[in-house]
Each structure stands twice: as C-alpha cells, then as structure tokens.
Structure prediction request, 350 residues.
Amino acid sequence: LMAMPDVDGALVGGASLTADSFTRITDGGATPTLSRSCTRPKELTARECVTTKNVLGESPVWSTKDNCLYWISAPEEEVWAWNLRDAPYRRLVGTMLGCIALKESDEIGDLVLAGERAFLSMKMSANTKDFATGAEILCQRPEQTEATRPNDGRVDRQGRFVFGMYNNYHRAGSSAGENNAGLYRLNSKLEVESLLDYKYRVSNCICFPKEGDLMYFCDTPTRKLYSFNYPKEDGGKLTNRRLVWTMPSNLPGGPDGAQVDAAGFIWMALSGAGRVIRVDPSTGKVDVVVHLPVKCPTSCTFGGEDLDTLFITTRGPDGGGVFRVKLPFGIKGLPEPCFKVLDNIDSNEN
Prediction:
C-alpha cells in the first residue's frame, strides 16, 4: 500500500490507516457485491488533443456560451482556454490555484478562480491587449489560519460555488495526518457556508446530478466515494452520507476530479491508475473504463457542441496534456452551471 503513487501530494493507500478514524475508513455501508458473471465494462481510449505539459492540469469546465474549454495548471498559476479550433492560450494569475468555475455574465471568458489566498474574478481573452488586466479579488477564502488551501470544486445546480480544502502538509510537516480541511459553499452574497460536520485531508470528486439534490464527494486518501443529500437552500448542511464506491486494492492511486453525465452516472479520474471510470451510483458498478497512455488523469468534464466528448486533464511527469474521447452509446453530459453573484454585492466588503 505504501508504494502507491501520490495524488495531489497525497500518499493514498496506507496514509488513511493512521489519520482517519476507524469508522471513517471502514464505514457502516458497503459497496454492493457484484457477481462474477457481471458484464465486463465497455472500454474506450482517450487521445491527447492539447500538448500543454501542465505540471498539474486540473478543473476542466466547458462553457456552452463561449464554446470553450477552460482549465488550470495549479502550481504554475495558469488558466488555460481552448475553443477547439484555434491554438489554446493561457493567462498567468500570480497565485496557486485550486479550481475554477464559470461566472454568470454576458461577456466571454468570465471566470471565478479559487486561489490559494482568495477567490478571484477574471476574464479570459485571446486578445493580447487584455493581458495586462489581472484578476480581481472577489472575496477571502476560509481557514485563513490553517495550513490548507482550496482544492476541488464545482458550481451546484443552483449557481453556488462548492469547494473543498486541502491539507498542505498531510503527509509530513506541521499538520501531518490531520483532518483539518473543510467543505464549503460560496453563495450569491459572497458568504462562505460550511457544509460538512467533520474535517478531512484532500477534497475531490465534488459533482452534482441534474436534479441538484445530491452531492458526491471523496477524501482521496480514503479511496472512498460518498453521496450526500444536498441542501438546495442557503444555510443547510450535507446529510445522510452513503458509500457509493470503494477503489479496489489492486489499483494504484486514488479518486481525483469527477463529473456527472445526463443519465446520472459518475465519471471519476483515477489518478495513478491511468483511467477514468463511469460508476452507477445506485449499484456501485463500473460500466465504462476510459484508458489513457499516462498514469495520472486528474479530472474530467463533458464538452463539444453536443456535450458528448469527454475532456480529461492530466499531470506530469508523463502527462500534463488534455485528452479527449468521443463518447458512444448516446452518452452526453450536462451544461456546466455558472456561479451567480447578486448585482448589489460589493466584493470589497468580503
């Protein structure tokens, strides 16, 4: 177990045996046992479409309004954009990034960035005249006194930005092995709400089905994906935690970013295992496997004109590009929601 590779700096496998409580690891529920006679998963292969060589490509989002794919290279402090026709381009932000989201706007390229020190608002543009305009502070991040930073996140179906934190030193250092990272929601008033009644180490797999009443989440070192009842109204918390899927012990690495398709199935990047899988949340069955020629896919999303192309970000040293696969069997994604900010909110007050 201890030889398993790193995911976002997390030694998955053995790490959770000392840091998580026994109940968090074993959990009261169990992934449904599948018969040996089960149908084998359908297998696909993704091919590289953008050779960016990102150190840690992450957080892909597709804008149906812009017809554009956006993603980040987290430690390189870069935001990337590609419209599938012209050459991709990047903007340097000047702070380490955790994830990005689309911002509701009539303008092209309006994004929200979860930065290491604050949440930022920025407009992406291929026009070099705009490159001198940097990101603006939208509001402060939570846990200012903790050794944490924003990591995974997505906008919920109601237009609020849900994000999880990351223990910067969970493997070694001042907070080694500590569950000190929280799960939060940034609402339209730029108020940060706590969503979870316990802390963890590495947030990942945050995604929502079409109805918006469930949320999926994983603390990567535990290698377990959970579903929660999700509060649609402001001020609520996640409830009714249920185990959806546990990563098999024969696979290295751990779950990273995820997305939900139009049929409600969950697509997860398994960083370290060189694949993206589709899981039926009602049974825990894996029915599609997308293979990559690199070890560490980091996240995925649906894009293209018909939302039937799966885009996958990856990390180095052998990866770092963006990969894609055209999905058969009538599989399609859902439009990515946009983060909504009330017009009368002054970001400088937050």
About this structure: The helical segments are 16-19, 22-26. Confidence is low (pLDDT under 50) at residues 1-7, 9-26, 28-37. The chain is about 5% helix and 40% strand.
